[in-house]
Amino acid sequence: xxxxxxxxxxxxxxxxxxxxxxxxxxxxxxxxxxxxxxxxxxxxxxxxxxxxxxxxxxxxxxxxxxxxxxxxxxxxxxxxxxxxxxxxxxxxxxxxxxxxxxxxxxxxxxxxxxxxxxxxxxxxxxxxxxxxxxxxxxxxxxxxxxxxxxxxxxxxxxxxxxxxxxxxxxxxxxxxxxxxxxxxxxxxxxxxxxxxxxxxxxxxx
Length: 205
Ligand code: SF4
Prior knowledge:
Elements: H1 8-15, H2 17-27, E1 61-65, H3 70-73, E2 78-82, H4 96-99, H5 102-106, H6 112-124, E3 131-134, H7 140-150, E4 159-163, H8 169-173, E5 181-184, H9 191-198
Parallel strand pairs: 2-3, 3-4, 4-5
Antiparallel strand pairs: 1-2
The structure holds iron/sulfur cluster.
């Protein structure tokens, strides 16, 4: 995948639509329903919901990744931006240190400007084919906010939404035209196992 065609999010930026979406998304952080858990935590004021995240994005790792599906990694690699903590917290998670060690992840909080700079680094210095957001479901407003900073800095790569699929439809609608590729894992085909291993009763629905 090579970023030769300008992604739709660039036009959304210049039309002002991206800014309008951020306003709507950030408002929802005051009684958080960004993912289907709908905890109602006031993340703007530092309250923590199930994902243990405030309004500040947590990005412990941003690096080139050659191990994604071949069409995503290509020859230069995918520019992965790992978000800290998680809205699902499966007991078998292979990225436990990143997804579930809430206390240490809080020390990795950054601001949208720093997140935008990491995206530009992956594009300009490491020549990645795309920006690949890993576990973004609880950080959708922050993702779009960073994009608002990154577009005028020259970001033009396709964006990949690499998700556990426990996503809010309302939040996904705000990503229309922003995300180019949805890389969606299917964790469960039974709510029984979703409840047992991720403490979620409605994963399948
Ligand atoms: S994003 Fe976090 S705080 Fe918001 S509803 Fe989901 S788990 Fe709760």
